[in-house]
Design goal:
One of its GO terms (molecular function) is serine-type endopeptidase activity. By secondary structure, the chain is α+β, with helices and mostly antiparallel strands. The chain contains 13 helices and 40 strands. Helix 7 packs across helix 8.
Length: 709
């Protein structure tokens, strides 16, 4: 017998596997651990799986991967076919629409066979010589994972700050490159926040956020001068409250470097520094106050402020420089509206552009500051997503925006705000004979158990029958106020073309229907999120979009928590569930402040050190509520280096389900765990490698409804 860590594999077992006998599922040993708080003791039999360096644990994860491959061996060719099919829809040699900033046009491009983008620019005009700033394919060589976490160009346009992650732990190493000479400067600053860095106006001083390697929270802002030892960098701000997240950027006007402190939807605070005085002190725009969130844009001698002060769905104010801390000096520009949420804004010399949400859909509103003319752009589809693009220039009358729908590929437009002319600059090219007229989208509303109307966006191929015979994939997220908008996906076509209907349930916990939609799906109202999803499923079954033996559910991260709660509540509704990087061990994680990001989550889920939140959290935590009953087919995915949801949560959940789940008479259900041993929360880093994970998910579902081609 060959011993492999926890598992003994006999030659007899191997012989059976080769003769199509059902493979034996791995079973993690039970090692009870008592967890006591509030006078209550929970027994966690798989707590030890958090020992990332333990060979026993690694071998268990590998055994689960091997088991998955054995179970899905009949659809190996389908997985390969799906991968090639999805890859074949992508235009391999492609370019983004350039945008002008300063003296350069910036764009990204992909080359045939390349997994990563190449970041380029041209000086003066689009006919100028191409300069390659960063070649992602070259930078990624030798790394199983690679991510370029943004870049920032200096005022003289010669230097670029950039950040790299080669582990997928979201701990970025900051570097500086001379774009004229190609030299990468010797200083390398580890454990920084991606995208949160800014140049001062002197072209030699930069600011960045340092993260705690244990909790992964960015909590310190440092000042660095090129050519000096990073160990001598000056600490300019430290966030004392570990429930706040830090951001750092140079404002659009270039006048200020801004530090943003955000308490997860509960409070905001900005600190500003004149970029021409990098050794000066950051000053507070408006002190933090519980319940007050705001965003700011600087223009000329004033600030525009998007604020929820006395305005749940936000309103727009303006205030002159020097008076920002006096709210009495704030002047209202756009009032609060109970049925419209002000989501974001952009400012131009003659125009104000607002991103709004109403009835679950996004809209773009353009206001002429001189004439006061006010208009909404028209998109003409029942379910879509439109958003303000990157517009670095104040002095223009042209708005760059993006548009997509369930049937329309991602599109980039320029809109002349004076002449009202809309110009399509680029639409995502979908190869393989895609024709949008072959697909239909719908927007319907399900009535939740408490009477609330929940929007559902659907897409399917023309001719798909709505008699209950079609398989359907229902997707949701439903947390953090994140709205799941009905955008296009070329990979999704592989399901639609095989008869699937795809549905997005816009459940509470998101912000599709305004701020109240979020507030009613968090903290002590979190169960509304789960109930909405189940009630949407029942609506889809009742109205013959599908049936329970062909209904699938999918969600990731906090959406994976949703999946776990849903199958504990109503497992009979689903044929199969895909839970990607699922946050399922809610109570234990939220009690451990050493785990990355825990403290910043208290305002989303509650702090279980308070008994009220502990009891409520315990009542829905998927891991704690696994019971001896029949569960649907389940595919669970995770990444060993996940920085958001630690790999052991899904691993423990699967281990517990293995011992607890039963089967309906005559029906053996699959329980599969796949761990990407080289990636984290976002999965594989390459544009094609990531498709292999999608192919796995799709093959899992297609196989269960008898589609193997």
């Amino acid at each position: 017998m060959k011993k492999t860590g926890l598992f003994l594999i006999s030659t007899f077992t191997l012989h059976c596997m080769t003769h199509a006998q059902p493979p034996a599922a791995p079973k993690a040993p039970i090692k009870p651990k008592e967890l006591t708080i509030h006078g209550q003791t929970r027994i966690d039999n798989y707590y030890y799986l958090n020992e990332r360096e333990n060979p026993e644990v690694i071998n268990y994860l590998k055994a689960e991967n091997a088991y998955l491959e054995q179970v899905l061996a009949p659809v190996k060719s389908l997985r390969e076919k799906l991968f090639e099919e999805m890859k074949g829809r992508i235009k391999q040699q492609d370019e983004s629409v350039p945008y002008k900033e300063g003296n350069y046009y910036y764009y990204t491009k992909y080359v045939t066979g390349g997994e990563y983008p190449i970041y380029c620019r041209k000086k003066g005009s689009l006919t100028g010589a191409e300069e390659i700033m960063f070649d992602g394919n070259a930078l990624a060589k030798g790394h199983p994972y690679y991510n370029l976490g943004g870049y920032e160009i200096s005022d003289n346009e010669d230097l670029a700050i950039f950040a790299e992650d080669t582990v997928s732990r979201r701990l970025y190493t900051l570097r500086v490159k001379n774009l004229k000479t190609g030299q990468v400067y010797p200083e390398a600053i580890p454990n920084t926040e991606a995208g949160s860095f800014a140049w001062a106006a002197d072209n030699k001083t930069l600011f960045y956020i340092r993260k705690d390697p244990q909790t992964l929270l960015g909590y310190q802002v440092y000042r660095h001068v090129l050519g000096t030892d990073p160990k001598q960098d000056v600490l300019v701000y430290e966030e004392a409250d570990n429930q706040f997240y830090l951001g750092l950027y140079r404002m659009k006007s270039k006048k200020y470097v801004a530090i943003a402190s955000d308490h997860n939807g509960v409070a905001t605070e900005y600190r500003l520094l004149d970029a021409k005085a990098p050794t000066g002190q950051f000053s507070v725009f408006l002190p933090r106050e519980k319940g007050h969130e705001y965003d700011i844009v600087h223009f000329a001698n004033k600030f525009y402020v998007r604020t929820n002060w006395k305005a749940e769905n936000f309103r727009l104010m303006e205030v002159t420089e020097g008076k920002t801390s006096d709210r009495a000096a704030w002047q209202e520009i756009i009032p609060h509206r109970p049925d419209v949420m002000l989501a974001n804004m952009d400012v131009f010399v003659n125009h104000l552009v607002l991103g709004e949400r109403k009835a679950g859909l996004t809209s773009i509103r353009v206001i002429n500051q001189k004439t006061k003319a006010d208009e909404y752009l028209d998109f003409g589809e029942p379910a879509y997503v439109a958003g303000i693009g990157y517009n670095p220039d104040f002095n223009t009358n042209v708005l760059r925006f993006g548009y997509s729908s369930l049937t329309t590929p991602s599109s980039t437009f320029d809109y002349n705000m004076d002449t009202k002319q809309k110009t399509l600059l680029k639409q995502q090219e979908v190869l393989g004979g895609f024709d949008k007229t072959n697909y239909v989208s719908e927007r319907v509303y399900a009535t939740a158990r408490d009477g609330v109307k929940v929007p559902i966006s659907l897409v399917y191929r023309k001719g798909t029958k709505k008699d209950g015979s079609a398989p359907l994939l229902q997707y949701s997220y439903g947390s953090y106020g994140y709205s799941t908008d009905p955008g296009f996906s070329s990979t999704r076509l592989s399901l639609l073309d095989r008869g699937f209907i795809y549905a997005i349930a816009h459940i509470r916990g998101g912000q599709e229907m305004g701020r109240r939609w979020y507030e009613d799906g968090k903290m002590l109202k979190k169960k509304n999120t789960f109930n909405d999803f189940v009630d949407c499923s029942e609506y889809l079954i009742k109205n013959k979009y599908t049936s329970s033996d062909k209904l699938f559910a999918m969600g990731g991260s906090a959406g994976g928590l949703l999946m776990g709660a849903v199958i504990n509540q109503a497992p009979q509704l689903y044929r199969g569930v895909v839970a990607a990087v699922p946050f399922v061990d809610v109570v234990t994680t939220m009690l451990d402040e050493s785990i990355p990001l825990t403290t910043g989550e208290f305002e989303e889920w509650g702090n279980p050190k308070e008994k009220t939140y502990y009891d409520y959290m315990l009542s829905y935590s998927p891991y704690d509520n696994v019971q001896k009953k029949a569960y649907p087919n389940l595919l669970v995915t995770t990444g060993l280096h996940d920085s958001q949801v630690q790999y052991w949560e899904p691993a423990k959940w699967v281990a517990k389900l293995r011992t607890m789940k039963t089967n309906n008479p005559g029906q053996e259900t699959q329980l599969l765990l796949h761990t990407n041993m080289e990636a984290g929360h976002g999965g594989a880093s390459g544009r094609f490698q990531a498709l292999k994970e999608v192919a796995l998910e799709y093959a899992f579902m297609l196989n269960l409804v008898g589609v193997q081609q």
